[in-house]
Amino acid sequence: MTAQQFLIGRWHFDPSSPLLRAGNEERRLEERAARTLELLCSRRGDVVSKQDLIASVWGGRSVSPNSVAVVISDLRRAIEDDPSAPAHILTVNKRGYRLAMPPEPASVPSALPRRVRHSMLAGAAAAGLCFVALAGVAHLRATTPVEVFAEPVVNDTGRRDLDAVSRALTPVVVDGAIRIGSPVTPGKPTGPATARRRIALRSRLILWNGAPELAITAIEVDTGKAVWSGFAAGPIEALARNTTQRLATLEVPLERESRSRSTSLSFL
Predict the structure, then answer these.
(1) Residue 217 is inside which H or E element, if any?
(2) Domain residues for 156?
(3) Nearest partner of 176 among 81, 130, 125, 244, judged by Cα
(4) Mean pLDDT computed over every residue of the chain
(5) Is the predicted pLDDT of residue 191 greater than 90, yes or no?
(6) Which of 10-14, 91-95, 134-138 has the lowest mean pLDDT?
(7) pTM above the 0.85 mark?
(8) Which of 8, 124, 131, 145 has the largest CB neighbor count within 10 A?
(9) Residue 26, domain CATH
(10) Is 154 a member of any domain?
(11) Confidence check: pLDDT of 122 > 70
């Protein structure tokens, strides 16, 4: 891949350094993280599978099941404003990862008089605000109750001495899930789909730089779509506290688009 600079949100990425720059701020990436980001940049907008990442970044060597996820987590911490709700490095369920395309700026012809251009921009902004407000009303009309299933924490470290840690974290995850105000059931979801929107909280104890870390993902049971993810870092004695703090940011959308949304917005 040729060395060039990429713009990701507010960050400029230089693979040859490898550095992230935003104004006077710099963040140096670990080699595997930099090579992963360079591959995502070179195929921006397309899904890059885990197999492609392993082949390119790890040279096709055998790696642990969570190696790619750990590097993606590291990148999100460096780039995203909120790593638990990534806007740039996206997970495509059961397929891989995708770097979001940069937004296209709205253009106003420069030949127009300044006063006209300002009027057009003001009108567009007002229309946009009206649409957002009305869309919010439409969402409220299509809300669906949510039921959360807090699955047992899985020890994915390969170390049996951490089994007790994963068991101790399971009730911590349950308590954190209760904070969102929806019914919470400990264990895996069972039975057919219901009128409620079912969300499964799946947590894995992993190792990052030799220290345990809890990776938590909220999955929509009936679609398999990941709607939230978060990481709670170690050391062991801090895991419970950090897990509680991370789950405090849990945002499971309580609103779901209905088929009648277009009817609700027809007056636009």
Answers:
(1) strand 211-220
(2) 146-247
(3) 244
(4) 77
(5) no
(6) 134-138
(7) no
(8) 8
(9) 1.10.10.10
(10) yes
(11) no
